[in-house]
Amino acid sequence: MREQLTRETTANVYLVLFSLSVLLNIFLLCQHFSFHSPSRPSSTISELSWTRRAAAEAEAVAAISCSGHGRAYVDGVLDNWRPTCECNTCYIGSDCSVLLSNCSADVDSGDPLFLEPYWMQHAAKGAVVLSGWHRMSYSTTDHFKSLELENHIRLLHAAVGNAITDGKYLVFGTGSTQLINALVYALSPENTSSPASVVATVPYYPMYKEQTELFNGRDYEWEGATAKWRNSNKTNFVEFVTSPNNPDCLLCDSVLGGSSVIYDHAYYWPHFTAIPEPADGDAMIFTVSKLSGHAGSRFGWAFIKDENVYNKVSNYLQYNSMGASRDTQSRIFNYVKVILAEIGSNADIFEFGFNKLRKRWQRLQALVNSSSRFSLQQLSPQYCTYFKKIRDPSPAYAWLKCENEEDADCAEVLMKGGIISRGGTKFGSSTQYTRLSLLKTDDNFEMLLQKFKPLVASSDENTSEISSF
Amino acid sequence: MREQLTRETTANVYLVLFSLSVLLNIFLLCQHFSFHSPSRPSSTISELSWTRRAAAEAEAVAAISCSGHGRAYVDGVLDNWRPTCECNTCYIGSDCSVLLSNCSADVDSGDPLFLEPYWMQHAAKGAVVLSGWHRMSYSTTDHFKSLELENHIRLLHAAVGNAITDGKYLVFGTGSTQLINALVYALSPENTSSPASVVATVPYYPMYKEQTELFNGRDYEWEGATAKWRNSNKTNFVEFVTSPNNPDCLLCDSVLGGSSVIYDHAYYWPHFTAIPEPADGDAMIFTVSKLSGHAGSRFGWAFIKDENVYNKVSNYLQYNSMGASRDTQSRIFNYVKVILAEIGSNADIFEFGFNKLRKRWQRLQALVNSSSRFSLQQLSPQYCTYFKKIRDPSPAYAWLKCENEEDADCAEVLMKGGIISRGGTKFGSSTQYTRLSLLKTDDNFEMLLQKFKPLVASSDENTSEISSF
């Protein structure tokens, strides 16, 4: 009887175990099939097919370690079929881990890499996937322009409050660089014996002069600084007004007050300046390089009030390049959408950019002010309609002046101290001045401070104040 | 005893079932964990993280049905937050399913959409994924140029055998359009009282004239057709040689034999022409528009022999746009790699392009030849070093002549018959001629044949021959 009971118990135990096991199987099979089900929403990975190879490749390349001092790209130089790290200035080695000794701080160009960490921190938002058949045609939704990108650029200006765009035409350029000469061309008279005089106020962005002289059209010529023409009765000017100005970052307006003014508002974003009111010029240039930091994308835009000027600019762009890359327009469309969506959130790019540049400015300013050898442009806190408060300066550039007579060539002085800057004469100014870019990587900025310290210290023996840098 | 045996048997059956179930448990658990294992190779979907959202979005948009007469893009015009179909000419409706009645066949532009099906058929190869921080800098691996793209372009020319690139510099442009004026600028004398004369042989690509006149630099001017200068003792020419020529698709060489010749080899690929030998000009322009079909990407390149000319072109490109979009360079890098890898395979893009254009040409030619009202340029089969055989013609354009006196304006005759073509005068030729693009979508080409039939039929009553079209 006991044996019988034992057998019965054994059978029951097996039955229970079998049942549990069957339940587990049912659960696992459900899991298995739901994971492969084609009816899952489109955001799950199970559906990916033709994008998978490229997506996996992009993630694999992004995962290559460059020690925080560089990054690898899918189109990087290959070593053993693998893209190599591209290191920040002064860092070398296959993983950018080696800091070069005696390396100069390169703060020459306006390379906007201060925004690179923003896009690394928001990787999913920044990813862009293009199909092989994406926009192969010359035509897009509005001739050479993406209509949705146009709409979103207008929405962004309205949300930031930095430009009035209603009643103005919009053109896209291969960088704002292309739009500079396009506007000079469009604002110059045609077939004239008196070409337009292209001018700007010192210190000015060198591109205006260099480009105007290089393209050397019959209908315009570079005529230098506005100061020279302030009291002349000459007309027929095309005046560049850069606001905030490059290099000194001050808000500016027209000096000659003529009708043909090109407002270059590349830096009129809350990263770089307070926004006291929306800009409303008849011809206003902007660029994505200084908005999202994508200088390599070569994408800029201009708002144009006058229909004839707009038609001439459009014509110029058609014959110069048949518009800006549609691949880039698609990529920038994504970034404008992200920037718009994140306004006021924890991922607000303007908040990110402002905080980074303000801190850099404060640290550089403290260092410069610790001696009398150098001085910086005067910038004051100002009310910003975007942040809805009085905000500290956060300029893109330091416009440095060497105050001592023996330091006649300021860029040369810095160069000897291991700092590559952009000398004042390029901006139509004197050698007493030089421009330091505050826009580059953290590595660049830290190296600038490191090299600057002894220059300040050697000027007077007041080293105690700067030991905290 | 029998009961005891039954119980024993029951227990054994349960044991067997339990064991089997456990084995299935183990198998399913292994499956489950291996599927989620991070050690699987990088090509599986399980590892995707930050690219997933964008990849899923791209696939969802690609899956929008446009009835084979259109396609939706990720940056398309939104309707209810969903990109809308962009339909081929003559098709309308939210899914492009409605054929417009009385719609003209638009064969005006050289939009290379004949290659769109190639990239749709090879979707995985064509996908490109860019991170948010991809190449934000102005600088890339070779100043404004991607070094790996340069290397692969050189490899492609070597593999196709259409150009000798050794010992020549390479520049990238925002389309070959940008390179035209860059080369005119670079080949013209500086600060001269006798500007360079820019010329081309009739019929010529209109861009040379239009662009040269629009930019109107002081150092060059448009001087029209080479025929005018053949017996002059004037020097100082910049001569455009387009080979194969646009619009008549014949292989050409310099007429004036001067030293400053710009060879435009946009169509010197096996899609469009036999490749009798590699081109070896001192200045040769190519464009991706007519290689892979990505006209919207705005990317072209030029090989330049002379270092001074190269430096001047580079300088021009720097001041015009600071190079071509790095996003686009990355995308084109992928396509050049794919094209190279598939040479000689079932997915050879040249084979695909050649077959498509040859068939189009044969069908159009049969139709035109069925009456005496029209004629086409004479093209003969020729030995091609790429295909290693004598191949039939497969031109990008038909250069159509109206043979009847009453059809004095050929483009106008076609327009009345519902065909939008590009009239001969634009090419410096007469109104007797007009250009028909054979490069566009299948829908465009079929509509061309449909509209052409009655024009041929109405000229003579010989309709029986063409009933097969």
UniProtKB/TrEMBL annotation, chains A, B:
Domain of life (superkingdom): Eukaryota
Domain Alliinase C-terminal: 105-455
Cofactor: pyridoxal 5'-phosphate
Pfam family for this entry, one: Alliinase_C
A GO molecular function held by the record: transaminase activity
Keyword annotations of the record: Aminotransferase, Membrane, Pyridoxal phosphate, Transferase, Transmembrane, Transmembrane helix
Positions of the Alliinase EGF-like domain: 49-103
Transmembrane segments: 12-35
GO biological process: amino acid metabolic process
The UniProt record lists the keyword Endoplasmic reticulum: no
PANTHER family reported for this sequence: BIFUNCTIONAL ASPARTATE AMINOTRANSFERASE AND GLUTAMATE/ASPARTATE-PREPHENATE AMINOTRANSFERASE-RELATED (PTHR43795), TRYPTOPHAN AMINOTRANSFERASE-RELATED PROTEIN 3 (PTHR43795:SF20)
Family membership noted in the UniProt record: Belongs to the alliinase family.
Record-given protein name: Tryptophan aminotransferase-related protein 4
Species: Rhynchospora pubera
